[in-house]
Write a structure and sequence with these properties.
four-stranded antiparallel sheet; globular; single chain
């Protein structure tokens, strides 16, 4: 089910993200017509979401056989891929624990690791600046959470200053994170820590947050990019455009897709 007929998301804060993720078959609903946005996510389920919805990464480590993931496990292929691309790791004694519930901090660390976000030069300062509960962030996750914050993929609902790192992540929250990673503008800025907001006169039909110094904006159904003064760096000439990531942005003009730098 990929439309707004999930019976249990009508008033959910992440409804737009859920519909966007479902529309791309990254997340799916249940046979009873529900999405269950507050349900937790297991490590196996998260591996499957990574394999389906996130940018494909080259293998950075050799395969491993987890003793608790048989070859016929429904997520065996996704788990293997998530491990080899450094999104997820196993535990001592060669186990993966596919049915273990994943925490918010673990999900964010996985994304920062797999997407190879560069480590911040001063992660502690970034965490103190953005999170009232920064002391609850495990030491192993400090650099990764700071990097995820700088990349503006963290989503904190309902309080932007509370990361709640050790809470179970929910299906709704996963949908919001995936949309941030993919540059799909479905999450209100008031839930995204670390983004810089600038006052620019309202002259656009739509606009997204700044990423790497540029923001995509829309005029007359065409997308372009502005700098932080509001000046067009790339004029509105694309039918579809995504935020810049590592100096590149995916755009579509007519039926042709290309990348710009």
């Amino acid at each position: 089910m990929t439309n707004d007929k999930f019976s249990d998301i009508q008033n959910h804060w992440a409804k737009a993200s859920i519909l966007a993720a479902a529309g791309r078959n990254i997340l799916r609903g249940y046979p009873d017509g529900t999405f269950r946005p507050t349900a937790p996510v297991t490590r196996a389920e998260f591996a499957a979401i990574i394999a389906t919805g996130l940018p494909k990464q080259p293998a950075s480590r050799p395969p491993i056989t987890f003793t608790d993931v048989p070859a016929n496990h429904w997520a065996a292929k996704a788990i293997a891929q998530a491990y080899q691309t450094n999104y997820l790791s196993g535990y001592p004694n060669g186990v993966f624990k596919p049915n273990e519930i994943i925490l918010r901090v673990q999900a964010l660390v996985a994304l920062a690791s797999g997407l190879k976000y560069p480590a911040s030069t001063d992660p502690v300062s970034i965490l103190k600046k953005n999170y009232d509960d920064f002391a609850q962030i495990p030491s192993y996750a400090t650099s990764a959470i700071a990097a995820a914050t700088e990349k503006s993929i963290v989503v904190n609902y309902p309080d932007i200053r509370r990361l709640q790192p050790n809470q179970n992540i929910t299906r709704g929250e996963i949908a919001a994170l995936i949309c941030r990673v993919l540059g799909i503008p479905t999450v209100p800025h008031k839930y995204i820590p670390g983004i810089e907001l600038f006052v620019i006169p309202p002259k656009f039909d739509a606009a997204d947050a700044f990423t790497q110094g540029l923001a995509r904006v829309q005029i007359n159904n065409q997308w372009g990019y502005i700098d932080k003064t509001g000046k067009f760096v790339i004029p509105p000439e694309f039918d579809e455009a995504h935020p810049f990531l590592d100096g590149l942005a995916l755009v579509r003009a007519n039926i042709n897709k290309s990348s710009i730098t």
